[in-house]
From TrEMBL:
Short name of one Pfam family: MBOAT
GO MF entry, a single one: acyltransferase activity
TM helices/strands, residue ranges: 6-22, 50-67, 79-99, 111-133, 312-328, 334-350, 371-388, 413-434, 455-473
Membrane-protein topology: Multi-pass membrane protein
InterPro entries for the chain: Ac/AlaTfrase_AlgI/DltB, AlgI, MB_O-acyltransferase, MBOAT_fam
Phylogenetic lineage: Bacteria, Pseudomonadati, Bacteroidota, Flavobacteriia, Flavobacteriales
Keywords: Acyltransferase, Cell membrane, Membrane, Transferase, Transmembrane, Transmembrane helix
Keyword Lipid biosynthesis: no
EC number: 2.3.-.-
Family per similarity comment: Belongs to the membrane-bound acyltransferase family.
Subcellular localization(s) per the UniProt record: Cell membrane
Protein name from the UniProt record: MBOAT family O-acyltransferase
Length: 486
């Protein structure tokens, strides 16, 4: 069940009615409904693995209580090791077992050894990378005294399975979401209206931008060897908009739905394509994941390597981003993607500007240097996303090879795509980025409208967005979100 589908609209409408009109002042009943709704949402997608997320929740709920009750650090440490082993071990087994098995087999064959490591038919639970990171951060925070153990099973199980962000994040820490589950919630009209605006914008990004970009990028990356380099260039330039609109569109909808239910969950994107260097980009891209790795991986590593000065900082960054790459999936392309992003930090570390944050001018103007830095960063991200998109490292480098060809100056060939469609898509992308630029200091692209547009102009814009969403919804059949696979 995906957000931009009729079954989900019916599910959420019924859920919303029960949540606010049947149980408006009963927090316990609302939490039970939230838990049951989250399990129904997950079971609709993959009912066979519902037991897995329940078992994971039960184990970590028990461990959290025992860690808090323990009076000896040694006991706390070993109890936390059980939780970490379950979380990391389950993630490695479900997502990476066959990857490592095949890699070892290829290595053995290259060495002339007749050793065959068995592969298994493993179905990785949807959203495992997201809800596992929730439980890992919870166990670590309880052990380190950053949060108290949750003693209400319904609250904790709801935290792990919170359906708006269950399949693709944001990754909320317990200290962010649990306190909201433990207190009474009241319907706030202004927050709900803004949540609806954010959902509308998220739908526009997914349905109009991401899905239409996918019509071009998927075909070109599949048949890149048969197409002129000009076609490859178009696909390479469109893919960053596709993945950003797809993933941030999901996050916008998740945040908007959470606000409709009285929750404020973690912001996941902060207009990353206006970043002036790679460090700023990663502070604004998939922010909940970046924050998670910064707290639990990068910071401990940087402390461990602190005696090595810049070399230690660079090593911590490189390891951190390599693990970020591995988090995305069992493929060498993701590992290389993360490794390269770590390497991109070297100039910033040398210049001492890695943590320097840029503040926008009050009038929103850009200097020539700032504009150049934005284009440079976007170009670097665009080239690297080729590796992320490719099915193998070999394919990625072959794509680069085919791109450097005299056919770059030929008229592009796009199967089933007219030039009129391409121009229309580019105009939608220009509108999309223009709206984002106007709201770059806000929470989302429609957040600035109250003070910038009169009521009739706003209604006209909403109707336009709704129209194009419905129009393109009927044209594109494959509407799955990219990050659900992770």
């Amino acid at each position: 069940m995906i957000f931009n589908s009729i079954p989900f609209v019916l599910f959420f409408s019924l859920f919303f009615a029960l949540y606010w009109w049947v149980f408006p002042k009963n927090r316990k009943a609302q939490n039970i409904l939230l838990l049951l709704g989250s399990y129904f949402f997950y079971a609709w997608t993959d009912w066979k693995l519902l037991g897995f997320i329940i078992a994971v929740s039960a184990l970590n709920f028990y461990l959290g209580l025992k860690i808090q009750q323990a009076t000896v650090d040694h006991t706390k440490r070993w109890l936390s090791y059980i939780g970490l082993t379950q979380g990391i071990g389950g993630l490695l087994f479900c997502k990476y077992y066959n990857f490592f098995s095949n890699s070892f087999n290829e290595l053995f064959q290259a060495l002339g050894l007749q050793i065959l490591w068995p592969t298994l038919s493993i179905i990785a639970p949807l959203g495992i990378s997201f809800f596992t990171f929730r439980t890992i951060s919870y166990i670590l925070d309880v052990r380190n005294g950053k949060t108290k153990a949750v003693d209400d099973g319904v609250v904790f199980f709801s935290y792990v399975a919170f359906f708006p962000s269950l399949l693709s994040g944001p990754i909320d820490k317990a200290r962010t979401l649990v306190p909201q589950l433990e207190k009474n919630r009241h319907f706030e009209y202004a927050s709900a209206v803004d949540g609806l605006r954010q959902i509308l914008w998220g739908l526009f990004k997914k349905v109009v931008i991401a899905n239409n970009c996918a019509l071009i990028t998927q075909d070109v990356f599949t048949h890149y060897q048969e197409l002129p380099a000009s076609s490859l260039l178009i696909a390479m330039l469109l893919y960053p908009f596709q993945i950003y609109a797809d993933f941030s569109g999901y996050s916008d909808m998740a945040i908007g739905m959470a606000r409709l239910l009285g929750f404020e969950i973690t912001k996941n994107f902060d207009f990353p394509y206006f970043s002036q260097n790679i460090a700023e980009f990663w502070r604004k891209w998939h922010m909940s994941l970046t924050s998670w790795f910064t707290e639990y991986v990068f910071t401990p590593l940087s402390i461990y390597f602190r005696d090595w000065d810049n070399k230690g900082l660079f090593l911590a960054v490189l390891i951190n981003f390599t693990v970020v790459g591995i988090w995305h999936g069992a493929n060498w392309t993701y590992i290389l993607f993360g490794f390269l992003n770590g390497l991109y930090f070297v100039p910033l570390i040398i210049k001492g500007t890695m943590n320097k944050k840029k503040k926008w001018h009050k009038n929103g103007s850009l200097t020539g240097l700032e504009f150049f830095n934005i284009l440079k960063t976007f170009g670097l991200v665009t080239v690297t996303f080729v590796i992320f998109k490719s099915e193998s490292v070999t394919q990625a480098f072959d794509f680069y090879r085919c791109l450097i060809d005299k056919s770059l100056f030929k008229v592009p060939v796009l199967h089933g795509i007219s030039m009129l469609f391409l121009l229309g898509l580019l105009s939608y992308i220009a509108f999309f980025m223009g709206m984002e630029w106007q709201a770059k200091n806000k929470n989302h692209a429609l957040d600035f409208l109250e003070n910038k547009m009169n009521v009739w102009a706003r209604k006209t814009l909403y109707l336009f967005l709704a129209f194009v969403i419905f129009y393109f919804s009927s044209m594109v059949t494959n509407q799955d979100f990219i990050y659900i696979q992770f």
